Amino acid sequence: MAHYLYLVRHGEQQDAEYGLPDGPLSGKGTRQARAIAERLSGVPFTRAWHSPLQRAEETAKIMTERMPALESKPSALLMDCIPSGPTNDMPHSFESFFGAITPAEIEAGEAQMSDAIAEFLAPARDDQHDLLITHNFVIAWFVREVFGGPTWRWLGLNQANCGLTIIRVRSAKPPVLVTHNDLGHLPVELRTGMPELQPF
């Protein structure tokens, strides 16, 4: 049996450039959410969850309006977080990222991601398609987990707003990354949230 996870980063947040911790979707964010909803409208989703933060909740609402048989539920396991802290084998270039992050934030993120992996990245008895609407670092941690990379390796794995990552979970074999940060449903002007422009 195949268990597919469809991980979607929320749409662009309004005024995110001013450092606001949360907020509604921008105009672009709304268009991004509609585009990914159209892209995934034919998937026979079994279940859906979203981060309780406003930008993810609004993305989920727009997406499920296009999928009337699907109800998305909030899950604290999908909250934005810091999945792990610095390690001895981490490249020095990432050290500055952790300058303003407290040990308590790291500890909370590590616990959250441990529970999230146990909850969502598990084999299923029947064919299952689950939609997870969440945040950049959370998706990066899932991708790192698929490859069994070192704990710091989520750093530098970036997802665009409403980019699509699909993971297949198997019972007798390691999980498979089907696609990562697929932006085929987004025109160039809607490709936001990445360190570099993604024109193609």
What are the salient characteristics of this protein?
200 residues, single chain, six-stranded mixed sheet, alpha/beta, 4 helices
Structural write-up:
This protein is an alpha/beta fold. It contains four helices and six strands. Strands 3-2-4-1-5-6 form a six-stranded mixed sheet, with helices on both faces. Helix 1 (27-40) crosses helix 2 (54-65).
Radius of gyration: 16 Å
Largest sheet: 6 strands, mixed
Query: Helix count, per DSSP?
Result: 4
Number of E strands:
6
Estimated share of beta-strand residues: 15-25%
- In whole angstroms, the N-to-C terminal distance is 34 Å
Give the topology string: H per helix, E per strand. EHEHEHEHEE
- In the predicted model, the low-confidence regions spanning at least 5 consecutive residues are none
Shape: globular
Helix content: 25-40%
Mean model confidence by pLDDT: 95
Neighbour order of strands in the largest sheet:
3-2-4-1-5-6
Q: What class would the helix/strand composition place it in?
A: alpha/beta
Task: Set down the secondary structure blueprint.
Blueprint: E1 3-9, H1 27-40, E2 47-50, H2 54-65, E3 72-74, H3 103-120, E4 128-134, H4 136-147, E5 164-169, E6 176-182
Parallel strand pairs: 1-4, 2-3, 2-4
Antiparallel strand pairs: 1-5, 5-6
Helix pairs in contact: 1-2
Quick recap:
With 200 residues, the chain is α/β, with parallel strands linked by helices. It is built from four helices and six strands, in the order βαβαβαβαββ.
